[in-house]
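Hello Y.,

Per our agreement to keep a running log of every chain we model this quarter, I'm adding this entry. I've kept the format consistent with earlier entries: sequence first, then predicted structure.
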Amino acid sequence: MQKINKKNVIDLIMIAIGCAIYALSLDMISVPNKLTDGGISGITLLLRHFWGINMGLSSLLLNIPLIILGYRFMGKRPLAYTIWGTLWLSFFLWFWRLIPIISQLNLEHDLFLSAILAGTLSGIGLGLVFRYNGTSGGTDIIARIMQIKFGFSSGKVLLFCDTIILLSSLSYLDIKHIMYTLVAAFILSRVMDAVQQGANSARGLLIISDHYQEIAQMIDLKLDRGFTYFEARGGYKKTKRPVIYLVVSPREIPVVKELIAAEDPQAFVSVIEVHEVLGEGFTYKQKRHHLLIRK
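Predicted structure for the entry above:
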């Protein structure tokens, strides 16, 4: 049996906080402004509207079959985290309804602002849950399975699932509220991915140039970044040439472009979005941020 360590405790605390933020978004913004939601939460809103069933209770009951499905693909610890997240989400969906803050934020006359705020808060909450290896149940379990097995973005999977559930919500909401809900769902997916990926996002550059040695020397001397040579072969002439692979922070991209252009204006450069980077210069030993090229 795996012992509970400091990391596990932090994971559990952050999952609970994420569920609290997500539930607050539903209770404080979505429900009062008649914005629906996707996944299990959207179904609980349907049940609440037509039959007055408590959202916390219906969320807990609907998650049972999905938790069983999750056990098959996710293993014991992810299952425990999922159960933990499901329980906290159900609790906070009930708890926030008892707090006066719910009636203090009046956004009923501004659906656009409501959609932005709902998407942002929900994205932050779910992003924290996923960042710390948990789910809040529901379609989050499906998103986690798709992420583990196929490497799909959890935010995009949730956006797809949410769209399907939202179509069902047309049974009690007009098209205007559904469209604003889609805006909230889109913002949720973007914010969630940003929170989940964290602050260690970066950009990878593939640089192909006949002046690769000069470019590499300038990167080393003036940018103070490491790089790697890949041996590549041209598709047309079949000639071999090194390709420089470099990972930098987003703010360093303009500096790198200036360095390359100074040595070879005809160089081929491909910039790749790197969602997370670990290692020296990013998470172990931080490099200095360069506002200007060092002289």
